[in-house]
Amino acid sequence: MRLDGGAGGAGGAGGGGPVIEISGLHKSFGATPVLKGIDLTVGAGDVVCVIGPSGSGKSTLLRCVNLLEQPTAGSIKLLGVEVTDPDVDIDRVRTHVGMVFQSFNLFPHKTVMGNLTLAQRGVLGRSESEARAVALRNLEQVGLADRAGAYPAELSGGQQQRVAIARALSMDPAMMLFDEPTSALDPELVGDVLAVMRDLAESGMTMMVVTHEMAFAREVGDRVVFMDDGRVMEDGPAAQVIGSPRTERARVFLHRVLNPTAVDDSELGQTEPPQPGDPDYVPQ
Ligand SMILES: Nc1ncnc2c1ncn2[C@@H]1O[C@H](COP(=O)(O)OP(=O)(O)O)[C@@H](O)[C@H]1O
Ligand SMILES: [Mg+2]
Q1: Nearest residue CA, atom 13 of ligand 1?
Q2: Which atom of ligand 1 is found nearest the CA of 179?
Q3: Mind listing the pLDDT tens digit for each residue in 17-70?
Q4: Ligand 2 (single-atom ion) residues, CB below 5 Å
Q5: Alpha-carbon span 29 to 60, nearest angstrom
Q6: Are 141 and 196 in contact, with CB atoms under 8 Å apart?
Q7: Can you tell me whether residue 265 is helix, strand or coil?
Q8: Got the DSSP string for 73-113?
Q9: Ligand 1: which residues within 6 Å by Cβ?
Q10: Each residue of 95-115: pLDDT tens digit?
């Protein structure tokens, strides 16, 4: 698949090179640097899970890849095409990047089918019957072909997120970006969404997934990237980064995520009991 739409010319799109190639990416909001030099490559069919504390820049990274944010400096190539090049047709490139957010962003006044056919018709110019056929195929993939006539409010959160995935797939993306797709779901609904994502990974889709689901990252991720403070601190095989992280920051983060209810603040260096003058000091 080519992103530039032209014959010859820019980049080796589809030529076996990386699908996503990020180098020296910086992003600031005003004077505040949020991404401080990201280098990251995602090969065809790779599943890269991005983990890291809140505020470390994970969403901003995905939004730069999806061209929802303009990088301050650096380069992003999608299928060999430099998307920060001012001559690139951003809208066209964006149609090849499927994005799934924490909030499902479905149109409440449209049926599931309506949600899935809207952009296919408006952006890709497909006929109604072609758009419906593509939608149905993708609803089948996420296990919701029987809910095509339902409205979003009639579906559970997990079903709505699976519809959002089917909607993204209906644009025939070359890659899929997920930003904490299960974080807003009730715990019992998380598994169905992860199962759909696992199927998608097994079908060969190139994926970047921001997630706190460490079991998913370990089992489905080819690589795990740990971000902290706008930088990639670790990038390696999932089992290695999760199982034996190299940096202290990743160890602290993983300990907290893997033991969310542990009453253990040793990681914060607060092993001493409260002392007189501390706000939580209680005289014995
Ligand atoms: N549009 C924006 N304007 C100003 N600051 C932003 C904006 N988007 C994100 N930030 C800031 O960038 C930092 C990283 O945010 P984000 O990428 O959402 O992190 P994460 O997804 O890892 O939690 C945060 O400090 C956040 O407040
Ligand atoms: Mg985020």
Answers
A1: 55
A2: 21
A3: 899 999 999 999 999 999 999 999 999 999 999 999 999 999 999 999 999 999
A4: 58-59
A5: 10
A6: yes
A7: coil
A8: EEEEEETTEETTSTTS-HHHHHTTEEEE-SS----TTS-HH
A9: 29, 34, 52, 54-60
A10: 899 999 999 899 999 999 999
Reduced DSSP (H G I as helix, E B as strand, rest coil) percent helix, strand, coil of the chain, to 5: 35, 20, 45
Q: How many percent of the chain have pLDDT more than 90?
A: 79
Q: What's the predicted TM-score (pTM) here? A: 0.88
| Residue having the nearest C-alpha atom to atom 25 of ligand 1 | 55
Two structure tokens written together for 213:
């689901």
Indicate the helix (H) or strand (E) that contains 178.
Answer: strand 175-179
> In this structure, which residue's CA is closest to atom 9 in ligand 1?
60
Which contacts of 257-261 are long-range, i.e. CB under 8 A and separated by 24 or more positions?
257/51, 257/212, 257/214, 258/214
